[in-house]
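User: Is it possible to get a 3D structure for a protein together with its bound compound? The compound here is fe (ii) ion. I've pasted both below.
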Amino acid sequence: MVARQLPKLKTRVRFPSPAPRLKTMAESNLISSTFDWYLMDIMPIVSQNAIQQKYGYHGLYTHTAAVVFRGIDYALNLGKSPKNVVLACAFHDMARVTDGDDTQHGANAVPMALRVMDEIGNIDIKSRDSIAYAIKNHSFNLVAPDYVSACLWDADRTRLAWELGYNSRFFATQRAKTVAAGNANQYLQFMNQNMSDYARNIITKLDKQY
Ligand SMILES: [Fe+2]
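Assistant: Yes, that's possible. Here is the predicted structure of the complex:
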């Protein structure tokens, strides 16, 4: 009896399809993803063009990063796109040469910011004007003409409220009023919870003085 030839077993190795990576809460939220965009796409260009310090009271990786984070938070709470607020916050102190009185640093940052915006590209004239106005006037003005100025000025002044005491006349947005009048340490916790691991590796100094 001829053994019936068994068909060869076709072994087929099945690779398990990779399980979708679970996103952390920070990765799935808009503050965190916008902050990552700032760190990856904007901060390196600012860093190459800025004359401000990297660390310290007005540093790029300390104060400016904190202002960008708060700016995103405040813009989102207004229901606005945070993009132009991020740019205004990113550029606002790039010409600062001292932690002391530097009354011209806002105006001096404008030509730098315009150069950086040329490099980034794809920013319309209205946005450029709005960002330039917000930067130029961030130290003095109280009446913000639009949400970009309102969010930058509020984000920049929040630490002053934590340091010197809260005064509502310096703030325009409701979210900033709540944050500036509230507990600084609680906000630092909020920042930490809403930053990705990537961001936490770059922005290592979170402090209420920033
Ligand atoms: Fe500032």
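The domain at 30-200 is CATH 1.10.3210.10 (Hypothetical protein af1432). Residues 63, 67, 92-93, 156 surround fe (ii) ion (CB under 6 Å).
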